[in-house]
Amino acid sequence: MDFRSGYIALVGRANVGKSTLLNTLVGEKLSIVSAKPHTTRHALLGILQNDAFQAALLDTPGYLKLGRDQLDIAMSHQLKSALADSDIAILVVEPRSPGEVETDLIKQLKEARIESILCINKIDTVSKSRLLPIIQKYSEIHDFIDIVPVSAANSDGVSVLINQMANSLKIQEPIFPSNQLTNRPPSFLVSEIIREKVFEQYEDEVPYDVAVEIESFDYKGTNKPDLIQATIHVATNSQKKVLIGRSGAAIKQVGISARPEIETLAGRRIYLELWVKVTQNWKKKSGFVQRHI
Ligand SMILES: Nc1nc2c(ncn2[C@@H]2O[C@H](COP(=O)(O)OP(=O)(O)OP(=O)(O)O)[C@@H](O)[C@H]2O)c(=O)[nH]1
Ligand SMILES: [Mg+2]
User: How much distance in Å is there from the Cα of 252 to the middle of ligand 2?
Assistant: First the structure.
């Protein structure tokens, strides 16, 4: 049997479930997920493979039409370069008619001549009868390889999507070693777990003004927990107060939520030390943003 492989970018509007879908496809929690839009800031590679194919899946930030600061520009760049690197794309949408974002993205896919599969996610939230007119509308505006309704949350339809993806890949050797799961180091995944907890726990602009930096990740001996020291950068003094909370209760809760997931990832006990630092206007500083993207 001919082996197939290639890069597949997961693209779409913010909050449609691209990261949830990546995690469901690879069967591991690699990419962070939240109920708030624009959670993902980085293109993240997750590798799905078996004896017949290797799909190098790239999760991407939700589409942003206009950049307001260096972070927005960097996020849009992550999406653009993931598309440029990809053999095919999966356009992830919610079960509703195409809007401006979807039309814009389809235009980009056409211009770049990237073949794409339309994945209608969150079908657990609508009745089947609502899907047909949506499928109809999408098939009128673009010639997709296929249109696959799924629920990334409960894996419904995901095996159909995997088959279609695998069939659309080129016949070629694997790109990555068979034991590789992602292209990001553990320290990146740790910083993202902490950022996810910030997204879950804080409201308004706070999660959007947070960047997490891992200062150290040290092995302390077989029977001792690894020491992880992380700095949570915020943009203003008042955000620092909110993040820390009364007597440090809020930041302590971030640590409590993040630790079990980090321990699962590391396969070891860890001790997590969190520091909050004001880095004024960091989103406007391209040097800082580049280091954290
Ligand atoms: N009901 C339902 N909710 C889903 C499904 N997939 C994802 N979600 C929820 O949708 C929200 C957004 O999910 P994400 O995976 O973070 O979405 P995303 O497209 O990566 O979002 P950005 O990174 O912000 O662009 C979360 O609350 C998920 O739990 C699904 O199949 N069904
Ligand atoms: Mg995401």
Answer: 25
Is the distance from the beta carbon of residue 18 to the nearest atom of ligand 1 less than 6 Å? yes
Rounded Cα distance between 203 and 291, Å, is: 25
- Among protein residues, the one whose CA lies closest to atom 7 of ligand 1: 17
Instruction: State pTM to two decimals.
Output: 0.97
Distance, CA 169 to ligand 1 centroid (Å)? 26
What tens digit of pLDDT does each residue of 234-282 get? 999 999 999 999 999 999 999 999 999 999 999 999 999 999 999 999 9
Domains recognised in the chain with CATH numbers: 4-171 (3.40.50.300), 186-291 (3.30.300.20)
Ligand 2 centre to CA of 208 (Å) is 13
Of all protein residues, whose CA lies closest to atom 8 belonging to ligand 1?
17
pLDDT tens, residue by residue, 112-142: 999 999 999 999 999 999 999 999 999 999 9
Distance CA 286, CA 291 (A): 9
CB of 10 closer than 6 A to ligand 1? no
Ligand nearest the Cα atom of residue 75 = 1
